[in-house]
């Protein structure tokens, strides 16, 4: 398995160092993997070609070759984004939710990587006669929604057989269509229990009862919104990794940039190490051929390689 690392901005340099340290440790344990790191001076077309020559692309925040990565994701058809939400044991005490809920939190959020805006005609800003006019339109076809729904139901079937579909059907007609098509698709998966929630209801549950979710399907721009709320459950927003997948073998992992917060005196948390461990464990447990992270977890060899908490 060959991994291509796309370095990001200078502030993300510690993330890259931790990722490389983890991969080197795994290679020393006879891990069947290799990696290369795109040089800062590499032109975009070189980075673009390198993406297609790799099994996995791992991008860090503020990637210098963001244009090449975006072009790769578009051509490779990476239409689905996946957010694996779990709280590592070492961070449960920092979670704003009770220990009981934090301990059981393990869910997967699926969304549409295009956010329902697949071309420039669905959004923009123009100069009107007297003022600027802006618009943002969500555009979905039945096939778009069914493709996402089928993947969500398959993933839910491999987990605890519970799927929650989140929408804005109370405000947007397109989300009403979303809810109807997801309900129709559910008839093909009688062993999966389907629940519909409005986005406000879903956010409320993430705050008071996050362990009530298992697999979540969210339309439009709701998946990253829910993932942002869920990432705060660790006590340190920005720790989680996003995967983008399609119908083929290509996979793009985008590491989050942790948000540093004030900690009690005498306690130090290496957030970059934890974010790197989160990303590497996700891509190792779920290689490109399945591209379905149905059980986010931390392999022991990852946790042994680099401690994230020191007292």
Automatic annotation (TrEMBL):
Q: Where is the Isopropylmalate dehydrogenase-like domain?
A: 2-280
SUPFAM superfamilies found in the cross-reference section: Isocitrate/Isopropylmalate dehydrogenase-like
Q: Which GO terms describe its biological process?
A: L-leucine biosynthetic process
Superkingdom, according to UniProt?
Bacteria
Q: Which UniProt keywords apply?
A: Amino-acid biosynthesis, Branched-chain amino acid biosynthesis, Leucine biosynthesis, Magnesium, Metal-binding, NAD, Oxidoreductase
A single Pfam family, by name?
Iso_dh
Q: Does the keyword Metal-binding apply?
A: yes
Single GO MF annotation: 3-isopropylmalate dehydrogenase activity
Where does it sit, as one GO cellular component term?
Answer: cytosol
The name under which this protein is listed is Isopropylmalate dehydrogenase-like domain-containing protein
**Organism of provenance:** Burkholderia cenocepacia
Q: What is the lineage of its organism?
A: Bacteria, Pseudomonadati, Pseudomonadota, Betaproteobacteria, Burkholderiales
């Amino acid at each position: 398995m060959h991994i291509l690392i796309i370095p990001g901005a200078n502030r993300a340099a510690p993330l890259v160092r931790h990722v490389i340290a983890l991969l080197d440790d795994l290679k020393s344990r006879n891990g069947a993997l290799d990696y290369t790191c795109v040089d800062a001076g590499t032109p975009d077309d070189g980075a673009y070609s390198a993406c297609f020559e790799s099994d996995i692309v791992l991008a860090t925040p503020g990637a210098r070759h963001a244009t090449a990565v975006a072009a790769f994701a578009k051509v490779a058809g990476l239409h689905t984004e996946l957010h694996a939400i779990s709280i590592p044991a070492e961070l449960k005490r920092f979670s704003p939710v009770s220990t009981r809920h934090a301990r059981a939190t393990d869910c997967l959020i699926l969304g549409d990587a295009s956010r329902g805006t697949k071309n420039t005609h669905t959004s923009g800003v123009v100069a009107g006669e007297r003022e600027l006019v802006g618009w943002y339109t969500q555009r979905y076809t039945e096939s778009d929604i069914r493709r996402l729904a089928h993947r969500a139901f398959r993933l839910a079937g491999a987990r605890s057989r519970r799927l929650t579909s989140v929408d804005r059907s109370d405000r947007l007609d397109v989300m009403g269509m979303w809810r109807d098509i997801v309900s129709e698709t559910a008839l093909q998966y009688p062993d999966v229990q389907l629940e519909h929630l409005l986005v406000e209801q879903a956010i409320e549950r993430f705050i008071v009862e996050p362990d009530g979710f298992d697999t979540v399907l969210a339309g439009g721009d709701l998946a990253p919104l829910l993932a942002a709320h869920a990432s705060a459950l660790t006590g340190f927003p920005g720790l989680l990794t996003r995967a983008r997948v399609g119908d083929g073998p290509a996979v793009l992992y985008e590491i989050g940039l942790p948000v540093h917060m004030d900690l009690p005196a005498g306690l130090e948390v290496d957030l970059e190490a934890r974010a790197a461990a989160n990303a590497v464990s996700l891509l190792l447990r779920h290689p490109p051929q399945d591209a379905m992270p149905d059980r986010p977890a931390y392999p022991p060899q990852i946790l042994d390689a680099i401690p994230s908490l020191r007292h």
